[in-house]
Amino acid sequence: MTAIYIQLVVSGLLLGGIYALVSVGLTMIFGVSRIKNFAHGDLVMVGMYLTYALTTWTQLDPYLLVPVVTVALFGFGLLLSFALIRRIQGAPQVAQIFATVGLGLVLQNAALMIFGADFRTTNSEIAGNVLRFWGISLPLSLFIAFVVSMAVIACLTVFLRTSMVGKAMRAIAQDRRAASLMSIDVKFIDMLTFGLGTACAGLAGALLVPLYPVYPTIGANLVLISFVVVILGGLGSIEGALIGGLAIGLIETLSGFFIGSEMRQMAYFLVFIAVLLFRPAGLFGQRGSETLGS
Amino acid sequence: MLEVRHLTKRFGGLAAVNDVSLTLNKGEILGLIGPNGAGKTTFFNCVAGAMQPSEGQVLLEGRELTGKKAHDVCRAGIGRTYQIVKPFGKLSVRDNVLVGALNQTRNVADARRIADEALELTGLADQRNVLAASMPLPRRKRLEIARALATGPKILLLDEVMAGLNPSEVELAIDLIKTLRSRGIAILIIEHLMRVITSVSDRIVVMHHGEKLAEGAPSAVMNDPKVVEAYLGEGFVAQD
Amino acid sequence: MSTMSTPSPKESIARRLAPVLTLLLLASLMALPLVVTDTYSLHFIWKVLFWAAIAAAWNIAGGYAGLFSLGHAAFFGLGAYTSILLYMQAGVSPWIGMIVGSLVALCFSLAIGLLTLRLRGSFFALATIAFAEVLRIAVVNGRDVTGGSEGLSVSFAPGLVNMIFQDRASYVVLMAAVLFVIGATTLLIERSALGYSLAALREDEDAAEALGIDTIRVKLIAIAISAFLSAVTGTLYAFYILLIEPTTVLGIGFSVEIALIAIIGGMGTVLGPLLGAILIVPLSEYLRAEFAASLQGLYLLIYGTILIVMVVFLPNGLISAIRDPRSVLRRVRRRKSASSRPEEKADA
Ligand SMILES: Nc1ncnc2c1ncn2[C@@H]1O[C@H](COP(=O)(O)OP(=O)(O)O)[C@@H](O)[C@H]1O
Ligand SMILES: [Mg+2]
Fold this sequence. Notes:
The complex is a heterotrimer of chains A (294), B (240) and C (348).
Chain A lengths: L1 H32 L6 H19 L3 H27 L4 H23 L14 E4 L2 E4 H23 L1 H11 L1 H6 L4 H23 L9 H16 L4 H21 L5 H15 L16
Helix pairs in contact in A: 1-5, 1-8, 1-9, 1-10, 2-3, 2-4, 2-8, 2-9, 3-8, 5-6, 5-8, 6-8, 9-10, 9-11, 10-11
Chain B lengths: L1 E10 L2 E11 L4 E5 L6 H9 L6 E6 L2 E2 L5 H7 L1 E3 L12 H9 L6 H14 L15 H14 L4 E5 L7 H16 L3 E5 L3 H7 L2 E6 L2 E6 L1 H5 L2 H9 L7
Parallel strand pairs in B: 3-8, 3-9, 6-7, 7-8
Antiparallel strand pairs in B: 1-2, 1-4, 4-5, 9-10
Helix pairs in contact in B: 3-4, 3-5, 4-5
Chain C lengths: L8 H20 L3 H4 L3 H26 L7 H19 L3 H23 L4 H21 L1 H4 L5 E2 L14 H24 L1 H11 L1 H6 L4 H27 L1 E2 L1 H5 L1 H14 L6 H20 L6 H16 L4 H6 L1 H14 L10
Antiparallel strand pairs in C: 1-2
The complex binds adenosine-5'-diphosphate and magnesium ion.
């Protein structure tokens, strides 16, 4: 019997690792550029479809294509930043919300037009395996996704701490104006951040492909989950996104088991509402930073 | 009339305002001066309800105002201006002031009448149809006063309303402040220009590093060695 | 808001007349069935009026109070579900159900508002999505009462008491009447102390607070009115379509479309939502009719593109372009030069 609980907790945490990766992208973009990207989940969807399409086309295993998809999404992020996001930087709230909502609509429906509304699944030779230990069994793909996610988050953390670009990002996150006075190229860093955030989303998408079928509106769910994670963890905080992601993964799996799978989503929305009410700055964020939402 | 007791405001470890007490009497103009970063604006924010003080009390005519929301403080009769002006940019000057007047009446026509009086008094009457965003800074500073005045305050908190004005505009502003006082409004004024504050204030309180450094008649305060030292340290004397 | 300044006496007369003309225009929509009689056209007109009405209801919160709700489907759906359930389960006339449903939505909006209004901007948008989703999931899972994801359908039993009519003209008149009421309410708000308070807090909340405006209270009033009117529209929808499903009436997609129409037409203006609906509904009908089979999704893709272009280049909506065409050119030009402008000012 305990095996079931271990199974639940472990798979919840593994799932949470992927949520954490998606959310890290979202929280970075918010932290540096103060942009809340309502299309972030749709970028994951783009990563998923790209992996699916490339796999179908090349007949390669999706895992071999993960780097390609990540780099492609990085480029796509730069493009989006150049074409759209930089135009809403510092714009009124309404423009920021609805420009990214509009972007989401465009991406979703472009996917619908290209791939149709059907669920698409991709098989992977590698991912077909199942890990068995402690009397529990886990799909290898979930395990891989978790390990890669954690590794990437760790690398990003080191990158932000040590590299020049990373330091510039943190400087902008602290005080935009001061950073631009210190002759940091704020616009360039904004673009780079959006590229990196999009790459995180795309990578997560590629890792999700062997696990879940993809369909055009899958992003809507993911964006809400990652906003829940980011707000739970404290806006702009990578560590917060990590812990928040794991927590939401756990909550989703446990509530799915105990309350029923339909009510899963309900559980994290309720958590979300509770966090907004009681700790709007997040569990790890500074109190008062919720006014940054203005 | 306004009594502030042991007010303290901390931001993290920093005490921006530290144990400051002062009293503003009926019909008085009290100057609040101090070098940049002394905590004057923070003090205003705590009195006006824009920030919650960490410790201390604010009393208006004996009634507790501590921790009240900004709109309640305004209702109670304290109007304030912002050092960094906050006009409603897309509204006309008249509508800006009308919004303030709604503090006295819910009737828009009445509010418009009150607004026009305030505009007349502050010399903005001929600007009433201009969009607030399109006015130059000196006028926007006056708009701040007009709006606060239209709320029908017993006390006005003026935060550097003369910064950035030229000498003749400063003269006008001094006249305006004296007129307001003659109408029975007590005024607590933050000002950087030493000449202005000494000529307009009945009494002066000096803040430095969040603490009250000195208090008294303008001449006495200006000759206080502690005050001179504080300003010298900041290279402030050269300003005027 | 250019409507609130009085630049010259001439324009001041125009300004006095504007509300009268607006109301006349809205009232005259009720006479449309006198001119148009074929079923298809009436259905089309109903659609335009419907989208104008729900967008106008959103506009009171989104446009006037700056509360960018992405969960208005919840208020709409509460109205629709309450009145239908009361009708089906207890035989209560939809006219009464409409009031009850709207009050339910109003209470729900007050609850959301009390819980979330200290949050600002996009946090509020997120919170409204979350609340609407909770409601949708609850409805999907409350199969016994709500019919689950298949929804509820009402049998066709014409009669004034049932709010079900043989002819479409009655539905058109009814929807036009509701649009008139929402438009008149908006005009009243605009001209009242509430309207000035909303205009002020939209510009600067701190300054509004310092002038004695209880910003939370004012926003609560706006969202409550908005929710109530959204729910009224929901009941009308339910008893015209005679079928409600959670995905259509409670989904995020619907909430986004509501906001989109108001934004495209012009937020914070009385006629903006109507203008938005007049442009968007025919466009979507055309695209759906033309491309539905070959290219599903095209119309939403175009919606999305229009939305992006609008908020970036014409954030005050099409109505601003009609009122002052030159301002659009000016804006585009400014946009171009803005790319060389330094960072936006940080507040101290
Ligand atoms: N919201 C805030 N958060 C953190 N520190 C603040 C804040 N507002 C003011 N301070 C700090 O408090 C000190 C006093 O500032 P202020 O009251 O503006 O001084 P003054 O108006 O006398 O120039 C300064 O060191 C300033 O950096
Ligand atoms: Mg100051």
